Every structure is written in structure tokens, then in C-alpha cells.
Amino acid sequence: MAVTSTTSADNTDVDRGTKEYEVIDIEQQAVAEAHLRNTTVQNITWRGVTVTVKDRETKLSKAILENVEGIVEAGEICALMGPSGCGKTTLLNVLASRPTGAQNVDAAVLVNGSKPSREAFRQMSRFVEQDDALIGSLTVRETLHFASRLASTSSLPKQERTARIDGLLDSFGLRDQANALIGTPIRKGISGGQKRRVGVASQLITSPKILFLDEPTSGLDSAASWEVINYLKGVAKRNKLIVIASIHQPSTSTFSLFDKLLLLSAGKSHYFGPVAGVQSHYESLGYELPLHVNPAEFLLEMVNTDFAAAHRRRESQQRLDQLQMGWASSQQAKDVSSSISGAAAGPSSTLTDLEVAEKKPSPPSLVLTLLHRSFVKSYRDVVVYGIRLAMYTGLAIMMGTVWLRLSSSQESIIPLTNAIFYGSAFMSFMAVAYIPAFIEDHATFLKEKHNGLYSATELMLSNFLIGLPYLFLISLVFSAISYWLSNFNPTAEAFFTWVFWIFLDLLAAEGLVVFVCSLFPSFAVVSLALVAFANGLWMSVDGFMVQPGVLNVFWRYGFHYWDYQKYVFENMMVNEFSGRVYTCAAAEGTGTGGKNGCWCMWQTDLADQCLIRGQGVLDQYGYKDGYMGKDVGIMMGIILGYRIAGWIVLKLKN
Question: Which segments constitute the ABC transporter domain (predicted)?
């Protein structure tokens, strides 16, 4: 039977009504969670945390956090609580050394009384987002497996890695869901509460000593919220971890699970200390907790002035100020300051033990892991390449049947030219279908980058490499259908040259998608509009709509020469026409070029034979054979340029 609840600190089961529980073997659990054991981090302290931003209306500086302090010891779980806009998420980001977007951040955050290096802090801590980015096409076990591989060297024995994963599955009550998919928009997966537990477990598998969580119970019902916090509490107690979570209006049972509470309002501390002591503190200020009332709701109502009636706004603000002053002058606040000073004055630790605790994977190993994960996602999630393959197959059938079995006579020359443009342009245009898949990858990357697992370099390399076989397959399928149906140059060499240019076309188009989505990852509609606009621009200046010799100077030198569709269209035209000969039409009346009873739309040296040399068609565009090597080099540069541009964007963004 699967374990659906972790044990409490003394390893006793908790009965939650209709659910069944099974006691986890203590020795087995100790072995499975050995990698989580914290023996280096004793406490985390923060003092004088002040964050200011510039008010958009007044243009003046405004404090969203003011002189906040606190201390959390190993094995404790602390809640940051307060009304919306009180600064709890900003404080969590400050403590986790994450960007806040604020004008000025002044804070002294110490671990074991000393300030760790950025790299050491990243190694010892993890952050779980409010909307944790999980890859929906992976199973629960695979999610933990890949998280472990990204955080620990490949030399970790397979048996030990499996034991770690099994231990967390048991601790978080996920054994029954181990082989269930997380869930995609098309395929339903695990529940919201289970996803939240997977998100936490995927961070714990990386062996952090400090865990930060941004509203881990948001969007969950009271039972699921209790389960998530209860699991966290059990793991933290057993392994001496430090857990700090922002939380919004928990139920009574969930609230009582926390060891410590930091209550914020308007950026100032109103209470910090044991959850059990908050009632006595407010009773000492003359505010007794009513019977049969959720303590968390009572506290939030006490420190929230947002919904006070207009005529009572001033009175509410005065009460809030009195409550804050009451805390600042209390003996408990002085004791907190003394504890922080004592931790800072104690024997400081450089935390060098963490540096050698477990070697991080090498960049090649990270790329291979990301490739493996992307491969699993690519064949399970139809949004990644399945839909695109179906789209391109449909396009090939439509194109092949519209331009069906074109002859080698002159009346087919213009349709063949149109087909070449249509095939190359719309192949790249439909790369917009890749936007949702990359935005999901980007969200996962941001989470894992902030947690120090890998960088933009590994993401770009793995993303480029995983696309190569799929894009080549798409190019081959599209060409195999449309090329022979339309009756393009019927030689094997010409066919594979066509496939090669379609492949380069798709590589460039996907590079464009990656670059634009890196710029605007939070706005799929913006990315979609920009990619569509860019492809429309490339179609306009690639040489088909307006011949290169006619195109005006601005568009020709400003855009035409770095338009990847230009090189695709040009070389596909050369592939079709440079080695072919077309028959002229029978003469009727006094048609131009009429000789020997025929007339030719393009005058070439074969006109007296009632034939048109294909080069004559190319001459009107200014195209010649012999430049394929140079053009391939330019295309490689464009493809690489888009990827480098996307890499730079990801590197520069916080």
C-alpha cells in the first residue's frame, strides 16, 4: 500500500479521517534520506532588510520592506504571512538572493553568522516558485530522476540515486503516482496538490540545506494544503533542514504546523517568533483571540487596512501603527535581536564543507541530461513536434495536389516558381507552432537556472541538438510528398538538395522562435505576433515578391541580404532551373520569339529549337549556379546568429 502521509517528528502516523496510512520503516527512511541530512547549516539570520522602489505616480522612493529581521534554526519551518502587498514575496526573494526588481536593497543575510559566497549559497539552497514549472510530459519519477542528474555528478551509483528517489516518493506520499504523468493540456495528469508536492520533492532531491517556497499552498484546498506543509515539516525535522515559506491565509490545522511566524504589514514586522506565542503577544496588547476563529484569519484582519471604510481609514492606520510599535517595544522583539546578534557573534563558518559535499555535473554531462529529458518530452508531448509534423504533412499534401504533376513546358515555369516560394516561405512561417513548447522549456530553465543547476549555454546547446533529427524528419517527409507530386527536377541529387535547403530553412525559423521567445517568454501572444511579423517581412524581401534587382535600396541592403528565406528561395530556384530545359508553346498568330512554329516566353540560346534553358528564368532574378557553398555558410551564420542572440538575452536577463 502506498504511503499517503509522512510521519511526524517522532515518527508516529497522523490520522486524517478516511485516508489510510502505513508506517514507513525508520531505518529504510533514514537510508533513503541520507543525502538530505544537514550537518553544516545551523541557522539563517536576516537583519535590517530594507527594500525601496520608485513610485510610478509620484516618482518618489517608497519602502516596501523596512528594517525586517529574523532567525530560523535548523529543523524549523517558518511562515512569512501578511496581507497582499505586505512585502512577503519580496522578503523571500531577498533571503534567497534572487532579483527583486527594486531600486535599492539593503540587507544583511547570514548563514551560520557569516555571508556565504553566491555559489555556496546557490549550492545550499533551493527555491520553489508559486507556479512551479514542471514538464507535463514527464512522470513523477522521471521528474525527480532528471532533477537528481542535473544536481549531482553522473558518478553517483544508480542504486543510490534510485534509493533517494524512492525515499522522497514515500516521504511525500507519491509512491502510487510514481509512474503517472505530471499532465499536459492534452493529457490529464496528477492533481494540483500532488503537483505541488512533486515540485518540492524535485528540489529536495538536489540536497539543499535551506528551502524557500513562495506560497506553496496557493490554489489548494485545506486538506491538500495541510498535506504539503505536513510533508515539509516532517522532512525538515528529520533532516535538520531550514524551510521558509510565504503563505496566504492557511487553515487552522495548517497554520499550527509551522514552528515560527513572521507577520508583516505595510513592509514592517508585527511579530516574529513561535506560532504558539502569537496569541499571548496580542493578548498582551489588548487583542484577545476569539473562540472558534482561525488564528491566521484573525491576525490578517488585525494587520490589514485595505478594506477599512473610508471614514475609518485613519483609525485603522493608527491601530496598525500601535500594533507595530507594540511589537517593536516588546521583550520578544528584543530577544529576537539578541538571538540574531548571538548567531552573528558566534564562531562563523566558511561553509567549505558544502563545496565538496557532492560534485556538480560537468557541462557535457548537463547537456546530455537535458537532451535525454527533451527527447522524452519530444515523443510524448505532441505540442513539441507531433503537431508540427502533422501540419507539415498536410501542407505537403495540399501543395502536391494543387501543383500536381506540372509538366516541363513553359506554362509550368511560373507555377513551379510559385510553388518553390510557397514551400520555403510557409515551412518557416509555420514554425510559430513551436512557441508553446519553448515557452514551457524557458519557464523550466528559469527555475533551474536560479537554483544553480545549469546555465543558458547548456539550454541552447541541448535545445539546438534535440531539434536536428526532428526537423530533418519533417523536411524529409514534406519533401517526399510534395516534391514528386509537383514534379520538380526529377533527379536524386536535386531532391536531396531540396531536402537540405528545407532543413536549413526550418533550423533558421526555429532559431528565430527561440530568440523572440527568449525576449518575451511571458507573453506567448507577443512572441507569436513578432515571429509572424518577422516571417511576413522575410517573405516580402526574399526576392520572389519583388526581384532583387528591382527591390529598393533600403529593403535590399537593410534586410534582403540577411533574410534566410532569400538564400533558401534562391538556391531552390537554382536547384530547379539551372540544369533543366523547358519546351516553348506552339506559335499562334505573331507571338514573341516565334520560330519554327513556336514562341518562347524566355529567350535563351535554345529558342531556335523551341526550348527554354532554365538559366533564362534565373537571369531575371540575377541568380547563378556555383554559389551554394557560400550561401550555406551564410545560412549557418544566420542560424548560429539567432542562437547566439537568444543565448545573450538569457545571459543578460536576471
Answer: 39-291
